Each structure stands twice: as structure tokens, then as C-alpha cells.
């Protein structure tokens, strides 16, 4: 299936050359889906950007272009709207044929890319022995969805968990471990710390209160970094414990990613410093090795240095990211690297990218993008906290959503007088609870902060997971009553009559365009908006067009629309990492 917009673009490219000459080859005709569908389905806005160059009024330009367009099976004769945009209406017959093709297409019109690339998505990336917080949750949800979408388009995705498993905190942790569990290193291969986060807090308290302990901790870092066996073992035990705790969250969220933590790049840090030296961009300032950044200044207006090696020989977060970037380009052969972290790290990444370019290993053929996101806030607009004022644990946050989803379901079952098995209730609560947290996050433009509200995200009204899941389950129940005979599809024409069904059909054909926009913008909320609009259009169709009670050919066409809507919702939700329910 050739996407609708592609056909339009082809025709306009042809008409542009015919109208104004070869130099207009490959000029983007600016085809977009019409916002106001009363006059058009698609709008072409090229006339405005050509007006100056051609010294003609936009209306006149549009008139010439229209005169040179081939007669199209896709759209009716175009008209000119307002100051000069071209309005296009899709032909009904074409729409009917396309719906039939869409029905036979497992990918629902989404094309596989001709330009498959190796893409690394660096996401989640919590820090060992520290709390995995809502920021990491957001990174996990957005990163997973982007990976799914890019993978579906046909790219080769490597999902990397860049965990913070190396750093000065380990000196303190190992020293504390040796103090409270003196035998842990010799006896067990599994550490029996109930929970690493409170262990971290206790160690930190000990560290803050005792100068001698601080000294021991600093020595411990050095021992660890020099590869001392005992300290390495302690470090490993701590990492494994942390890993188990993170895995609980990944299992609940059904996330799969490859761990490749900061420590992995440790052997390559020295080389990075040498690279910078060779490029003559390394300078020594106050004993530290650094690079002076272009376009970043400090408070007194002087160029800002980025320290890559401290005066004590230790390396920084940025040095590790430089080594990781080089490795991902040279060894992993990534052509695009995407980093999903909070917006607070934007400068960090801009600096790392700049230095990698100046050092010569980040070149034109590789693109790097930092995909920032805003904060997750509580309903009071402040940092998300428990009632008693502590930070919320992710496990508790997810459990509570499932619990609340179960309560809502039980209430609904009561009012609907339905009896369901425990197994059914558990499954629905789980899918709705987790799906709602994911959807609430993904449906926001990731650049903005968002307010975390169980009531809102679990509501059956509005742009929420339950609304979408409910729409899906409802269609499935219609389809259960009447199975579509796919064999009949070949010989049967799809007929669209009512305005509401034509509207739905047009919308179903736009999925590929939405996915294309997401590939370019990496904004998953565009998919949520699409699915929400689709469900609304479906509801309008269902209110206006009887399905099961209509006569043969009409019934068949309408069942096809039901089926396509359900499949689109299912595919769309799966690209967001959300399961569907056949009944709920
Ligand atoms: N561990 C970091 C944090 O918790 C995030 C790492 C993001 N990835 C990277 N390559 N720097 O803030």
C-alpha cells in the first residue's frame, strides 16, 4: 500500500516541475492533514513559500499548480481556500479500496523503512544502590515505547541500560558493608540486605558523621579502582542486590533491556583523555584535565571547562559518556544514538556531544539525540511524595495503581451485576493499573512536567488507558457476536455511506503518517492523541451507524471498520508497551 500522503506528494512534485521548471524538483510541497475537515482532508501549503521567489500571489501560484496536476484516482478536483492553500478531498471510491487493502495488511499501512539503521536507545539507567525514582520510571516508559516504534519501522535497536555502577559512592558502601556484615564477603554469594536503599541511607549517615570513616571510604574507592579482589567482590555483591531490585520493576512493567553500566567503559577512559590530548583540546586547570567548551560560559563570562580527569586521577560522569559514545560508534556501529533522560541533563549531553565532535570520533554519519523530559509532580504541584513526606518507591507506586484499578473494577462489576473469576479480576487490574501509569506518562508531551494523579489516569473518561482499553473491549464484543468472514472479503466491496463511517475510514488510513511523524520527532504522545481521536471517531460511527442490525453488504463493510479499529488500537497500544483486554 502506498500511503495516501505519498501519492499526493508525488503528484505535486510532478506539477511543480511542470509549472515552474526542473529547479523545483524535490521541493517539499508541504502536504498535511487538514485541521478543519469541513473543507478538506488534506491541505497543500507550498504556494506561500514560493510567493516571494516567483513574484506571484499565492492564489495565482496555486491556480497554476492545480492546472498541471494529473487527474487523480485519489482526490477530487482540488479547490483553493482562503489566501491560497490547496484543499484536497479524498475520493470515496479510493477510500473504499484502501480500506480493503488495509484490512489485508498486517502492518496496517505502516511501511518498513528502506533505510534500516542500527539505533541505540539509552534509557532507564538507574544508579546502583540508590533509589530508582520517578525520573527513571519516565525514562523507562518513554525509552521502551520509542524502541518499540523504531523497531516496528524496521530499525535494528539496541536497548542499553547505562546503570550508574561506578563512582565514589562505592567506597562508602563497601566500607559500611565490611563493618556491618564482616563475613558477608566470605560466606555468601548472595547478600542478605533487606533493602539496599535504606542500607545506602545508613551508610551515608555513617559517612557524614565520621571523618575517619570518610578516609576509609576514600581509600576503598582507590582499592576498588585498582582492582583489589576483595573490594571487587563486595562491589559485585552490591550490584547484584541492586539488579534484583531493579528487575522487580522491569518485570512488572514488562521491560527488556541490556545492562551495560558505567563500569563497562572503565578500561577506555584513559584512551579518551589521550584522544583529547592528541586533538590538542586538553588543558590543565587547577590540576585537573579539562576541555574548555565552546558556547558555554561560567558566571564570570569565561569559557566553561569540562573536567575529564580530576586532579586525584579520578574520572567523571562525562568522561564515561565520552567513552560510551566512542564505543557505541566504533564497536556497536550505531548510526543514531538516543539518550532518554530528564531535561536537567540537556547541558551535559550538549557538552559531551560537542567534545566528541571536536575529538573527531563523532562525525556526520552518526546522529546523536538527547530526548529530554519534564518532571513528574504530585497533585499539589510539588515533588511526588508519600503522605508522610518520603519519596515514593516505584514498587509501591505501581502496586497502588493496580490496587486502585482493582477497586474501580469491583465497583463497576457490582453496578453491572456481573460475577467474574478472581483470575479475570487480577488480570484486568494488572493490565489497567500498569497500562494507566504508562499511558499517563506517554500521552503528555514529554517536554512538559506532568501531574501524577491516580484518579485521572485510571478514569474511564478522557485520554486515558482505560478509555482506550474499554473502546477495544467493546469492539471485540461486537466482533464476537458476528465473525467477519475474511474469505468473503476478496469478492465483496467495502461501501462507505454515512458521514461518520467515511470519517472513521479516513482516520484509519492515517496511522502510517502519525508513525512517520514520531520517527522524526520522537514524541510518543502523537500516537496517544491519534488513538484517542480514533476511539472518539469510532464511538461516533457506532452511535450513528447500526452494525449488527444492518443489511448484508453494509453490515460487512461496517464490521470491517470495527475490526480495523480494534486492530489499530491493539497495534498502537502495543507500540506504547500496553497490553489489551478482550473483555474488561
Ligand atoms: N544514571 C543516570 C541518572 O540516574 C542516567 C544515565 C543516562 N545515560 C547516560 N548515558 N548518561 O541520572
UniProtKB/TrEMBL annotation:
Its main location: cytoplasm. It is found in: Cytoplasm. It holds the Pfam family DALR_1. Residues 468-584 form the DALR anticodon binding domain. GO terms for biological process: arginyl-tRNA aminoacylation. GO terms for molecular function: arginine-tRNA ligase activity; ATP binding. It catalyses: tRNA(Arg) + L-arginine + ATP = L-arginyl-tRNA(Arg) + AMP + diphosphate. A motif ('HIGH' region) lies at residues 126-136. GO terms for cellular component: cytoplasm. The keyword Transit peptide does not apply. Residues 6-90 form the Arginyl tRNA synthetase N-terminal domain. It is an enzyme of class 6 (ligase). PROSITE patterns: AA_TRNA_LIGASE_I. CDD domains: Anticodon_Ia_Arg (cd07956), ArgRS_core (cd00671). Its EC number is 6.1.1.19. Keywords: Aminoacyl-tRNA synthetase, ATP-binding, Cytoplasm, Ligase, Nucleotide-binding, Protein biosynthesis. Monomer. Belongs to the class-I aminoacyl-tRNA synthetase family. HAMAP family: Arg_tRNA_synth (MF_00123). This is Arginine--tRNA ligase. It comes from Atelocyanobacterium thalassa (isolate ALOHA). The lineage of its organism: Bacteria, Bacillati, Cyanobacteriota, Cyanophyceae, Oscillatoriophycideae. The gene is argS.
